[in-house]
Protein: Cysteine synthase
Amino acid sequence: MSTLIDLVGNTPLVELQKLNTNPNVKIYAKLEGNNPGGSVKDRAALNMIQSAISRGDIKPGMRLIEATSGNTGIALAMIARLFDLEIELIMPKNSTQERVQTMEAFGAKVILLDGIEACRDYAEEKGASGDYFLLNQFANADNYLAHYKSTGPEIWKDTQQKITHFVSSMGTTGTIMGTSMYLKEQNTEVQIVGCQPTEGSSIPGIRRWPEAYLPKIFDASRVDRIIDVSEQNAVETTRALAKTEGIFAGMSSGGACYAALQVARELEEGVIVFVVCDRGDRYLSSDLFGR
Structure:
């Protein structure tokens, strides 16, 4: 008999059947929406909370606090509930209503502010007061270590050690950092590709951070290439994933898929894995899938 925690990770890889036009390249989507909280962030949330409890950093009765654009908050709200911890989540005002309501359904307190940078500043200020435990996914090694422990090994195993390229959107950068660390230990030739928005594009889950807010866990040497993705590219590819491949996902997943398809067009042969970060039902109140 499994507990909810046992269901975090071990998500499936599915091969793209139609969008990939290079017959000598296989592209696999890692379906992180299959996690119990509906996104890749379940991995980091579990590892951050569980590791902090094991070290004695989080004590009974402590309240957690974190800034989030959505998926991490949902994952933290779910995991915090499993450990009987109260949590306060700080989100941008433009977050979709589905995300806010999901966090509140888990019993989290949600505060909405203007922009993720303001949310991060607020959470850090509260964390410094001593009244809260700040998880700080942007500087917390347990974020990327979750992917070193689970995402990387799963991909290596499920591709029968044949992966040549790993493609991931970059937000907190935990997924790409930890997965890169593991895959490069297995084979230094595996190429790690990150994607970020073009200047002026807004893609939930992917960020082009100002220098002052660049995640402290980010190590540029672990990424071989960065592909800029426009908002239009991300939207169109997200819609194509649903209508062509039957993969219902959010816009950051469309951005990663766009980058994976671009890489595939350049290769003579290869095995590409990209991360489908979450599920599309978190975006139905937005205009992502049209009206």
The helical segments are 41-55, 71-82, 97-105, 116-128, 141-158, 174-186, 231-245, 251-266. The chain has two domains: 4-34+150-283, 41-134. Residues 41-134 form a domain with the Rossmann fold fold (CATH 3.40.50.1100). The mean pLDDT is 94.
